[in-house]
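User: Design a sequence. Structure:
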């Protein structure tokens, strides 16, 4: 994986918001102030190091009071910022946008993780906001989940559209085995799950299976002495209301796109 240059991204985020300059804040006198970022609701905090870096780019100093991964209660202070008032205000929205989104992802992830047993792991998907993937997936980890693939070059994952183009699942698996040691296959029925396991898939994604269908698929793999040779992933239609049922089927992985693509940001504000 390529190295992640957070400063490069954060500079782009600031430039996007500031443009040629914060013309409203330029009306203010040059004055040193201290501000604080407060959470208006209970949440898992995520993104403080990036908020610190944003303010640091503009020459402001920060003190983090609630570290990433900690629980913050309503009206608790997450961090304080000291510096030129105009520079703090120029950074305000960019820092809050990242903090509120990452904290929302971490909080939603943590709420789901609490509903599943330790042996089943919750994974994010590639359903992230363009430009924010690394931040989104880091927030998932802070909330107790895992990343899955960050990019397409990390692992072969054969899905329905690949099969539609390639002709058959089996032919794509054979090609994958020639070039790569590890691959995942998405299947839509039990027969294909067994076939993928026989052909050496490391992970089998049961796409849009009901909990009962998953149990039958796992039993079929056990009958063929294949269950211990493969990881089973459940994906599709999984929510806070039914995730416990899915975890109870005995799957190894549950992947949920909503933790990154449908996130509700945490209500936070900067106060001087």
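Assistant: Done.
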């Amino acid at each position: 994986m390529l190295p992640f240059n957070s400063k490069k991204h954060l500079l782009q985020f600031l430039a996007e918001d500031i443009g040629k300059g914060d013309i409203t804040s330029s009306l203010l006198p040059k004055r040193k102030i201290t501000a604080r970022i407060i959470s208006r609701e209970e949440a898992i905090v995520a993104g403080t190091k990036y908020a610190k870096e944003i303010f640091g780019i503009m020459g402001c100093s920060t003190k983090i009071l609630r570290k990433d991964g900690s629980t913050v209660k309503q009206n608790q202070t997450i961090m304080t910022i000291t510096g030129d008032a105009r520079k703090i205000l120029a950074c305000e929205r960019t820092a809050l946008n990242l903090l509120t989104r990452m904290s929302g992802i971490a909080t939603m992830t943590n709420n789901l993780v609490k509903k599943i047993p330790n042996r089943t792991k919750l994974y994010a998907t590639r359903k992230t906001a363009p430009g924010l993937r690394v931040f989104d997936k880091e927030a998932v980890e802070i909330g107790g989940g895992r990343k899955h693939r960050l990019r397409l070059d990390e692992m072969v994952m054969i899905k329905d559209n690949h099969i539609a183009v390639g002709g058959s699942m089996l032919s794509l698996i054979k090609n994958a085995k020639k070039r790569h040691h590890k691959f995942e296959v998405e299947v839509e029925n039990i027969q294909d799950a067994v076939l993928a396991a026989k052909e050496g898939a490391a992970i089998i994604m049961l796409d849009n299976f009901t909990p009962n269908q998953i149990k039958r698929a796992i039993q079929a793999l056990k009958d063929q002495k294949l269950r211990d040779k493969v990881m089973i992933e459940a994906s599709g239609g999984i929510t806070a209301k039914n995730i416990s049922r899915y975890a109870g089927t005995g799957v190894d992985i549950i992947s949920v796109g909503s933790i990154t693509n449908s996130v509700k940001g945490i209500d936070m504000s900067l106060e001087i």
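The CA atoms of residues 45 and 217 lie 38 Å apart. The chain is about 40% helix and 20% strand.
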